[in-house]
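Students often ask why we bother predicting the structure of a whole assembly rather than each chain alone. The short answer is interfaces. A chain on its own may look different once its partners are present, and contacts between molecules only exist in the joint model. In this exercise we take three input lines together and write out one structure for the complete complex. Read the inputs first and try to guess which parts will touch.
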Amino acid sequence: MKKEFWRKMGLSEEEYGMIKGILGREPNEVELGIFGVMWSEHCSYKNSKAVLRSFPTTGERVVQGPGENAGVLDIGDGQGVVFKIESHNHPSAIEPYQGAATGVGGIIRDIFTMGARPIASLNSLRFGSLKSKRSRYLFSGVVAGIAGYGNCIGIPTIGGEVYFHPSYEENCLVNAMCIGLIDIKDIAKGVAQGPGNPVLVVGAKTGRDGIHGATFASEELNEKSEEKRPAVQVGDPFMEKLLLEACLELIKTGYVVGMQDMGAAGLTSSSSEMASRAGTGMEMDIAKVPRRETGMTPYEIMLSESQERMLVVAKSGAEKAVQDIFAKWGLEAVVIGKVTDDGYLTVKEGDEVAARIPAKALTEMCPVYAKEAKKPEYLIKAQEYDLSTLPELGDYGQVIMTLLGTGNIASKEWVYRQYDYMVGLNTVVGPGSDAAVLRIKGTNKGIAATTDCNARYVYLDPYQGGQIAVAEAARNLVCAGALPLGVTDCLNFGNPEKPEIFWQFKEAAAGISEACRTLDTPVTGGNVSFYNETKGESIYPTPVIGMVGLLEDISRVMTMGFKDEDDIIILLGESKDELGGTAYLSVIHGLEAGKPPSIDLEAERIIQRTTLALIKEGLVKSAHDCAEGGLSIALAECCMAGGIGADVVLSEEMKASSLLFAESQSRIIVTAHKEKMDKVLSRLSINKVPYKVLGNVGGEDLKITGSGWKVRLAVCDMEEKYRGAIACYMDM
Amino acid sequence: MRFGVVVFPGSNCDADCYHVIDKVLAEPVEYLWHGDRDLKEVDCVILPGGFSYGDYLRVGAIARFSPVMEKVLEHAAEGGLVIGICNGFQILTEVGLLPGALVKNPSLKFQCHNTRLRVERNDLPFTSLYKKKEIVEIPIAHGEGSFVADEETLGLLEKENRVVFRYCDENGEITGIANPNGSLNNIAGICNEKGNVLGMMPHPERCAEEMLGGLDGEILFRSLAGWRQGGDVA
Amino acid sequence: MFKAVVTITFKKNILDPQGSAVHKALHSLGYPEVSDVRVGKHIEVVMDVDSDEEAHKRIEEMCTKLLANPVIEDYQIDVAVVE
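Now the answer. The structure tokens for the assembled complex follow.
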């Protein structure tokens, strides 16, 4: 075999040698192509596996942890919430509309493959500066792609996040999360059990699209990436809607043994993973695979990433019944082979054997690498930056207005008004809040969901940044009245072969792990996306945390908006003089330096549990997390969401910029009716939660008074700035 | 009143309409499969929102040829009630039960948000429980909801008082700013001559429960449910 | 075999927002000479019929029935023989 060929498949010399050892012979081209995708980082996690093992993955609610198409958590009454997040960064950077659309389509399939009805999507997005034309092009294309797919298939897009930073200029991040609901007894898994059982390809026809998408995702983008455009698939949400309905109908019949989406690495990964999980083998005749193009080779059929296809293992004898259901929905279901007991993935074309590989060799025998990790130089310099020399700007009102008008803080209305966030009739709290909330029909319960990551913190201290990402996600759920249950993560980093990048990855994962343990939110699955760099420059390390929570009583759902005149505003948690890594520093002083805000996970846990108890008892009328921009921005958001002003006094001995803009963690703004204030305060004291009574709700302005300074901003003026900022960039 | 919700391939508000009738109104309701020529003896047919046939070729263009639509045409001709919501409205114009057409929003974007509507007629089975000129809030969610028609058709619609809902501002004024999608004369919903077929872009089923954003849409379904069976349509 | 190419555009009096957007974009890219843009659809239909005449007749029918909406669209048909 020529060296160029296996190099082209992304395999190393050592790996090529191992493959020869496993097979006891030279692999042919088809086999090498199969190994190439299955042993890529995207499919094998060979560079990240060792690190990911530190995540807590068990808990009393965990029904399905990592390793399946999606995680499942028990929410009581025999029901489970099924959820997962996945990246589609590289395809979106090349062709934003289709890249994002197929990202959404892929994650939705992961959910209904489990037998769950998808009930909502979220998206975590990162782009370069809004001032850049290319970023705006990617941004508008990605949003349109998400809307195009999600709206058509009829799954509401209820939330997520959008950030802008120059490090994402060429390599945008598109992380799509989907949530489904299932009766736990109906869970379907990706297993090919029962030798003799038929294997069917269902859904769309196979074409040449996306060949080598998985290996493409495991490389850096460069000038030549644009030429790789054929690697980007085109999505067909209509087809997927039919597939979704047919699959859910099929699962109800009990004819399904196992089912898996043909995502990255298509037929190759779905067949080998299903066989491997069940400890069986699979024999397929690829001449039977329905195809869209003529003259396709076995290699192309095995590696095609045509969208909207699934591999189904049915009970023997049920072939006709399965086909009838798909026919009802206008879809093809073709038997292409059967489950075997020899542990081999055998690919035939007619009578000819095109490939024969032990299934476990593809899924479990890929070498695992312990990469070298080294603390980056930039970090030492950035963390040592002396913030005490910063000039104190006088006009704080103006600073607040400027922050409200920056892309990262401004309202994302321009984005979410393009998403159908209401279809399905479950959306109780839609986009634009701390967390989105869905009711569960037929019960009094609700599910809250969010995605979070402040990548600037992770850049400045990966360990602490990782902790904060988890803590903030949980805090957002708590502010909606939900108990945080579990995590799905999407870890976006640069090239792991660089020791500095791998160090970031390791540290961030350790921070996430620690926070998940303390906050009792196990990780049920996720995705690692490396090689997010362009021309040698890495993106900011961006480990996105997707989290779901449970409301036992949906009538206790909480929102951030201030409610009524004279309600008392109370700040839970401690405000510290820490401006490192803040939006204020970045936007106003052009600095991304210092130590990010400190976090005490135990204190975080207590504040969250206390807040949740206050909400459950009906003692508070609003709750909002203090995040980007600090206390002043959080107060502004509460005012705007409620359409009412506030009068606040900040009495601490601290410089005004820190009081207003420090992003100290573990802080939640709540309001209470004045007659309930004493009760609230006594609860806080009992739980030893530090707090400050800040003032009261009322009027049409946000008034903040400190010692020797004063801010007064009309809520309507803030709103104009806040809501118009992104549209202003995009509609020019 | 028995309701039927048509399911086309790609319908995605079918279950929502069904839910509102079944669970909120507690009225009898059936799904009507696009491939069946059978309306299961329902009194009111709902063509729900969604992306029938992926909205490919033209919104509503392929769905209109479904076998079930033959029966819907007969039902309408006999004076039976038909309501098309969003994609359903688009199908009704394609099949010719309602005039005009719905084209891309001038923003070229899908738009999902609340809109204010003025109820222009409350003498219809669909709107009998609204007050005349009542201002209601019902959300839209569409990429192609801009109502167009030639001048003659538009004149006729106005003359015959067939505009049922119009986008308006908080004072009920019909203004350009209040018009989310460039629809001619701020038209959000129209009916046929006899008043038994209604098409509207906003989604009343999305505001039929307090928890989900008000009850302004529930009134429409309640109007229908309470309509005297076999009662004359104005 | 015959191949019919159907070109569908909005009627002159119907606002074509895609056309307007492309028009604006072309201006901003430095093509001030552009005075109008209409965006339409291009549909290719391959038919197994015996004559050019029949191909025309059938495709005309398809246009009025399904491919175009006469309320808002105009269409133009081209038919050619293909292998």
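Check your guess against this: Chains A and C do not touch (no CB pair under 8 Å).
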